[in-house]
Amino acid sequence: MKQEVIAAIVMCVMGAGLLFVPAYKIWSVTEKWKTIDGKGPSKSYVIITRIIGIIFMLLAATMVGAQDLTHYKRVTTPRMVPIRQECIFSESSRRLA
Question: Which of 18, 24, 33, 67 sees the fewest Cβ atoms within 10 Å?
Fold first, then answer.
């Protein structure tokens, strides 16, 4: 359970970074070396970066929420009731007779 929570925290931090860090700083680290003129990030790059940040934060919230649901499911699951086998054998013996 700790691994999932740590992964959710890391994803949340990454998503917040993509949302709140200026797009030019992200672009200068990841994409600037690929261009010849290096003018700056396009509008579509900024929009896609923000959308990916939102998706990361939603996935992190979903991972934490799924952990809570599985915990409650384990606590509230009813126990199985054993079947009385003498009833099964008595029915089969009546049919044979």
Answer: 33
